[in-house]
Amino acid sequence: MASYEETMCKVRGTEIMRDGATYYTVYDSKTEKVIASGNAEECAIKLKMTLHTFYSTVSRVKSRKNKKYEIDISKCSYTDDF
After folding, report:
1. CB distance 26 to 47 below 8 Å
2. How far apart are the C-alpha atoms of 17 and 1, rounded to whole Å?
3. What pLDDT does 1 receive?
4. 42: exposed, middle or buried (Cβ count in 10 Å: 0-12, 13-18, 19+)
5. Each residue of 58-79: pLDDT tens digit?
6. Residue 80 · residue 10 · CB < 8 Å
7. What pTM does this model have?
8. What distance in Å separates the CA atoms of residue 23 and residue 66, rounded to the nearest whole number?
9. Cα–Cα distance measured from residue 49 to residue 19, given in angstroms and rounded to the nearest whole number
10. pLDDT of residue 19
């Protein structure tokens, strides 16, 4: 069975994401609640930051310099089963 993120990679409402697209799930590291999910543009809007700032935040989370967020990153692939 596919995870929620894998399913959302394939179908987002009536929009189908392109193969190889990146799907982000952003969590508050203190509460572990999801605060944003979607592609980079969608997450940046939900977090009220520019796209450049979002990518910088992702990089800083990966390098463990930003402890405010936890970010799961998944690549969409149409070879996965629903």
Report:
1. yes
2. 19
3. 44
4. middle
5. 999 988 888 899 999 988 765 5
6. yes
7. 0.69
8. 20
9. 26
10. 61
Token pair, residue 5, equals 């993120």
Query: Shortest CA distance to 35 belongs to which of 44, 50, 25, 45?
Result: 25
Cα Rg of the chain (Å, integer): 13
* Mean pLDDT to the nearest integer, 7-23: 58
Q: How far apart are CA 67 and CA 31, in angstroms?
A: 12
CA end-to-end span of the chain, whole Å?
7
Q: What is the mean pLDDT of residues 24-44?
A: 93
Token pair belonging to 42:
């969608």
CA distance 17 to 41: 13
CA distance 11 to 71: 21
Structure tokens at 11: 């179908």
